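Following up on my earlier thread - several people asked me to post the actual chain instead of describing it. Fair enough. Here it is, all 865 residues.
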Amino acid sequence: MAESQSIDGLRPGPFARLRRTRAAVRAAILVERLWPLLLPLVVVVSLFLSFAWFGLFRILPDWGRLGLLALLGLAALASFWPLRLFRAPTAVEVDRRIERANLLEHAPVSVQTDRLAAGEGDPFAAVLWREHQKRMAERLSRLSGDLPQTSIPERDPYGLRALAALLFVTALAYSTGPYGGRITDAFQPPAFARTVSARIDAWVTPPPYTGRAPIFLTADANAGQQAFTVPERSTVAVRVSGGSGEETLAFVDAAGAAQPIAPEEGAAQTGDRSAVAAEGGAVRFAHVLTADGAVALRSGESELQSWHFSVIPDQPPQIRFLEDPKRALNGALELAYEIEDDYGAVAAQSRFELAEPDPGARPLFEAPEMPLTVPRGDRKDAKTSRDLTEHPWAGSEVRLTLSATDAAEQEAQSEVKTFTLPGRPFANPLARALIEQRRVLALDANQQRRVLALMDAVLLWPEETFEVSTHFLLISAVRSRLAMAESDDALRQVVNDLWEVALIIEDGALTDAERRLRQAQEALRQALENGATDEEIERLMDELRTAMQEFLREFAERAMQNQQFSQNPNSEMLRQDDLERMLDQLEDLARSGAREEAQELLSQLENMMNNLQMAQPQQGQGGEQSEMRQQMDQLGEIIRRQQELMNETFRLDQQQRGQQGQQGQQGQQGQQGQQGQRGQGQQGQGQGQQPGQGQGMSPGELAEALRNLQEGQGGLREQLDALMEGLRGLGMEPGEGFGEAGEAMGEAQGALGEGQGERAVGEQGRALEALRRGAQDMMNQMQQAMQGEQGQGEGQGTRRGNFGRDPLGRPRATTGPDFGDDVTVPDEIDTQRAREILDAIRRRLGNAMSPELEREYLERLLDMR
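Reply from S.P.:
Thanks for posting it. Predicted structure:
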């Protein structure tokens, strides 16, 4: 009994370890037997998940998706068949596995659970058996199990199972991206089972030139009952998204006739519209409305939606003359017309024809071209001018028709006007004859021999016909080229040469500037019409500015050559600043894209230049006005010379005063240096040397300079007396100012002889002021004389108008000196500025360190107030 207790009292540790080892080994055997049977099912499931996460089920068609899903299902069902071979491990198999794993002999694990087969009633046998179990149990203290050992490598020697695992991991990572698929994609219902509702969008886009906004048709719930009013040539567009793909669109006119509307280019037009609709694509229709009717959208036999339209017809434009064509002041042809259109015309042209064309003639030049300015905005009237005087047709009787075109390419024509095309008037008979023969040759090349004969007649007596030998040589050269011309191009060159020769005979090269101006204006107009780049516009604007400056310079030269020019006193003066502002505004409009406004402004500029009056001399006044101008120039010279004498006298007087006060000033500066102010002492020494600069002239030289000034003052007084005599000869009475000026000049002359410079300066200033008053009185008398001759006696000095200025408003230097008669009363800003200057002078006088010469000069400035 005690022995039995000994066996039963063994420590429980080995037996607990045995139980754990048996559980681990049992699990390993289960894995070894179950994993090979479950691996086919795991592979099938991993393939399904990989296909789903890669989005394969989403992109496959229905039949492919369903077929792949069925194949994977069958494979999953087949993988369950090997499970029928599964057999759970027994306790004996577990113990035998432990013993093999731990290399145990005599089956110590099995002994612990075995029982005696016989002799259980024998006590000695029982004790011996328990002793045997005890000894075997002592060998179980270090038991351990082993890992599962499946037969998968033998079944899959190539390791294809790893591909399924790699595909699974990759698909799992791909599914987290934006293009990854979902498991539910495999179980979506077939496409034929979907119920897709069509989305219909319809709108009308009016033509851009109408300026109207598009109309969204499907935004109105009552679109099928109301009629939309739209301009002609509006485009109705219908877009169907989704739907069955069998939608059609048709236009039904007022008579009920249906016109099918084909879809726009795309997949829907190639016959695969159902597929496009099934994939959520859109089918688009478009139709241009030209008449009243309805647009109906159908799907098979049922009508989905319809829209009714009332079309506003686009009327053709109208163009008419407001007045007969006329010649501008500079010879350009000026047209005034009116254009009407529903939405505004886009272009206008003029067509010229000869009034009486010769059927047998061979013209060398086409009809002149004259593009017309199109009015913008609410304006209907417009004006266009163009210089056609150089065209060979100038001077011929022509018929003119205006035409206008709108954005719909509808054209209208005006009535026909018959008139003589303006040409340049030539005063020289020889130039006029050349222009006439030029026109004859240009209109009919068959007249070559006749023109040659007439030119020979002109060249027959050169000494009586030509005043300038150069003209004879030029016409002879042109005659030779005409005789040798054998082609139309050569004859055209002769026609151009005749024009150049006529201009030279008439007025030389004075019209070159005007020609360059016209060419620059025409080039800029063409660039604006053709949509040139900003760089091209900038270059043409520079050329226009240069040509404008040359033209204005030539214009001013003519005005100076002809001092008295006909000018309307009530007309507004055109200044150069106004032209510059117009050019700047024109360039800004062109650069900002407002080309139409720029063209209109260019036309206004051309009209202003056309109406600019050239200087024309008045008859019968040249000699008298020339003498008056000489008297004015002489008076200006006297005033200028008197000013110079006064300045020179003042300078010499200051030098004389500086020599006298040099010692006293140096002593004062020395005392200031002894006060210990180092900086101010240095300044006093530097300033004390300034009077010494006048020591360059000795007292004798200074006296000689004063005598020279005395002689100059006397000569100036004699010139003033001669001027007064000349004015009396012209019928003008010298004013009191001239007499007072003569007396002041005599007093100044005497003071210079006595060496009294300060008194001489005062008398010279009084003489200068008297001269200015006399000049003003002289100008008033000249104005009264001129107003009396022109019948414009508006009172003395009450109307200055444009007298003394050129047609551009600039002062004319040849009308005499500027006597300051046009000086205006200073405003508040000028008064404030003068006050600041006076305060600065007083502060400078209050500085004790200022030199004596400077102090005397500043005191004289204050005394002049």
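The first strand starts at residue 199 and ends at 205. That should answer part of your original question.
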